[in-house]
Amino acid sequence: MNCKTVCLLCLPLSAFGMTQAAWSEQSKPRIIITTDGEIDDMNGFIRFLHYANEFETEGLVYTSSMWHYAGDGRGTRFTSRMPHTARRYGERTELRWTGTNWMQGFIDLYAKSHENLLRHKPDFPSPKHLKSLVRVGNIEFEGEMEKVTEGSELIRQVLLDDKAGPVHVQIWGGTNTLARALKCIEQAYRETDQWETIHRRVSEKAVLYIILGQDMTYEEYVLPNRPDIKAIFNRRQPRGFAYGWRGSAPKAFHRNLDGQWFSANILNDRGPLLARYFTYGDGQPVVGDYDVRFHQMEETIRRGHQQYDLISEWDTPAWLYNLDPAFGLRQPGDPPSYGGLGGRFKASNKGPRKWNDVESEEADTPVVDLNPFTGKPDPYYAQTRWIPVLQNDFAARALWNGKAPGQVNRPPVVTLKHPRRLTARTGQRVELRGSASDPDGDELAYSWWQYVEAGTYRGAVRIEDTNGPEAAIVVPEDARTGDTIHLLLEVTDDGTPPLTRFQRVVVEVTGATPADRGQLPGRNVKPSLAAGS
Fold first, then answer.
1. What three-state secondary structure class fits 45?
2. In this structure, are 373 and 432 located in the same domain?
3. CATH (domain of 34)
């Protein structure tokens, strides 16, 4: 297959005329999933299908990685370029390949619950539509990006289409299929007078969320040639929701990840799709992946687990990041430093639009949130802090497979009575006014709290009346002009399971209160007079 240049060169440049304002008005994020088919990918995909109504899914693409590749069928031997997997697996003709049919198989199981899911939300995509999005990308070897594949062509076409962006390309395996798509665009346009426009617009449109970094194609091709593409690298934070979670997630949250919880909320009487969710000791081997023995009780016990404990959802944060607006945690256009369901990130020193939780596994200071259970900075807590919220929400969605809408708890609706961005001087009192309602008439518990690490002011701010819809703070005297203070209103109902939603207020410090104007500490900042969002 060759890059299809004819249709490319006929593409009108008006297709790239979307403004950021138009992008931010989208009700659903556009996403493409690329996956190498490990057990954690499969679990993440099963969960994703229960939230498929929240996204405009544009592609479901098989790709390779340092952990999984299909080989070329001719006995060609390959050794990983990644030191860890090179030491572990050595030279191989293929590696733990799980095939190119498992997504379709899970979609078939999704089809059996689709009618009931529609009763809860009428915009769940049809199984037929989801199957039409499945493509095979660059799967032969880790990092292979020389061949044009159906998967790379789908990504290329979406990045060049005339729909509003951004397009969130989720990298659950290697970046090679994405890299091939970008290379096709470059080959088609570089020698034309359209190249600068195409290069700029594609760079603005694509947003990458890369789990771990599972081949070298981002560092060797994407970053050098497309440094303006926004890329979020999550290397460490998923561990609290993945293999080894017992050592990474707070012990207080283990009850949301253990076998008792999964048996009660996910695996039993929740439809045929969730019955296939992989857990420790469940007797369900992953076809093709000879290196995983999690389904065996002997291995389960050896690893210190109980039957039906969570194995892993390492890749799930890639699409949880796009759920933030639905939960009220982050809005389109907010930087990854705000933190949310998909983790929290810092700007990289390797590219103008690259964000990481840590620059590399070997060095650099990781992003940390203070773990209140240990009182220490924690490189996983930016992700694990949301585990109870995520698991309760998943448990509620699981019930959609068999119960009628009136039989399942629905989340509260949380709003602000003022803009989400406010400005204030030091010493001024800022009134925070939220409200919430519950569609089921449940009792609501309110909590205002400061997300210290998300703001640039890192001191503690005292919040008045934290347990009601309305609260207040006084901007500390040691805050500097330009500092931001992030305050979250968290509302949880008393349904079963309890469900939580949020609103975030960002207070920007504009400077010290001028004494000559008589503006004394304690002066109210009325939200209606503050800066807009």
1. helix
2. no
3. 3.90.245.10
Residue 303 corresponds to which tokens in the numbers above? 């690893």
Are residue 107 and residue 199 in the same domain, yes or no?
A: yes
How far apart CA 147 and CA 3 sit, in angstroms, is 9
Classify residue 221: in a domain, yes or no: yes
pTM over 0.90: yes
What is the C-alpha to C-alpha distance for residues 490 and 512, in angstroms, rounded to an integer? Answer: 30
511: phi then psi, degrees, rounded to nearest 5: 140, 180
Residue with token string 């590749």: 69
Residue 257 covered by a domain: no
Q: For the chain, how many structural domains are there in total?
A: 2
Residues 345 and 464 in one domain: no
With respect to residue 401, please indicate whether it lies within any of the assigned structural domains.
no
- R_g (Cα) of the chain, nearest Å: 24
What is the per-residue pLDDT across 101-143, written as a single tens digit (0 to 9) for each? 999 999 999 999 999 999 999 999 999 999 999 999 999 999 9
| Residue from 131, 132, 149, 153 nearest 140 by CA | 149
Dihedral pair phi/psi, residue 445, rounded to 5°? -110, 130
| Vertex 505: Cα angle to 502 and 509 (nearest 5) | 160
Tens digit of pLDDT for each residue in 3-37? 754 344 334 333 333 332 333 335 899 999 999 99
* φ, ψ at 101 (rounded to 5°): -130, -5
